[in-house]
């Protein structure tokens, strides 16, 4: 079996060389990758493959192993780019293993840091289906900071701009760390990234096969992606988390201009205006960058909900009572 590996950090040493073709190694009925990563349970699956919680038997800690499908050479090249990503909101990439065999389809394994916590989908469910506005704004700000880093990424050698797009932002792919509720973006669209790189190198428009219905903008479903595509997905994610509605219902109500008329939604006007600019269907009319979105967030003047209620009901009632007091005197 021929094996190629991409390594980073102190945990791994670069090893190359041919390996004999063999069946996957197992231990107590569970698969072991590279005689090191013991798969424990499936965490999820998508268009690019399956993700497993695993144990690194060399160091004894837990990690995440993503079994990637697609063109192995393209995925290997794109995995090299992802292995160099360093941001406090991205799980660290620990290892990449590419196995080829004459007897079965090539397989690629991407190994990442395991973040102990809850996805925003799980967190919202625990909160009754929606999350409080302060938490949502904190999540949004942290996500935008990660996107700002990704969209302005530069090549290590040439320092030329080489943006990385996430391409699959949704509540399931955002984790709040258990210890401090710090946000992490997970499950990058690696297969899609590989195709983007190939098409850009050939001077063609990128062709994307996979996307998440409802969260992915129209241009992505048509095989065209730009940084504003991630902005759209983040905006839809925030609306789902703030309203507790299904993403398709959110889009339908947006198109009908009725989403924010629902009294149960109760999102401040300045926040709704920003979110509406993020989820505009025409990419040309949308906020174009994470930097611009962050600037818009910083300009928001948010009034606590109890203050809004007081100004709406309490202050008029207080004025009436004061008027009666002076009149009766």
CATH topology of the largest domain: Transferase(Phosphotransferase), domain 1
What is the CATH homologous superfamily assignment of the largest domain?
Transferase(Phosphotransferase) domain 1
| Lateral arrangement of strands in the main beta sheet | 2-1-8-9-7-6-5-4-3
* Class computed from helices, strands and strand pairing: alpha+beta
Radius of gyration: 24 Å
Instruction: Profile the largest sheet.
Output: 9 strands, antiparallel
Write down the secondary-structure element order.
EEEEEEEHEEEHHEEHHHHHHH
The parts where pLDDT drops under 50 for at least 5 residues are: 4-21, 197-202, 204-209, 303-308
CATH 2nd-level architecture of the largest domain: Orthogonal Bundle
Binned strand content: 15-25%
Number of E-type strands: 12
Kindly describe this structure.
With 329 residues, the protein is of the alpha+beta class. The chain has 2 domains: 2-113, Phosphorylase Kinase, domain 1 (2-Layer Sandwich), CATH 3.30.200; 117-306, Transferase(Phosphotransferase) domain 1 (Transferase(Phosphotransferase), domain 1), CATH 1.10.510. 37% of the residues lie in helices and 20% in strands. It has 10 helices and 12 strands. The protein has helices at 72-83, 120-126, 133-151, 190-201, 218-221, 227-243, 247-255, 269-278, 290-298, 305-328; strands spanning 2-7, 17-18, 25-27, 30-33, 37-46, 49-56, 62-68, 93-100, 107-113, 117-119, 174-177, 183-185. It has a 9-stranded antiparallel β-sheet with strand order 2-1-8-9-7-6-5-4-3, covered by helices on one side. It has a 3-stranded antiparallel β-sheet with strand order 10-11-12. Strand 6 (49-56) and strand 7 (62-68) form a beta hairpin. Helix 1 (72-83) packs across helix 4 (190-201). It starts with a strand and ends with a helix. Mean pLDDT is 79; it is low at 4-21, 197-202, 204-209 and 303-308.
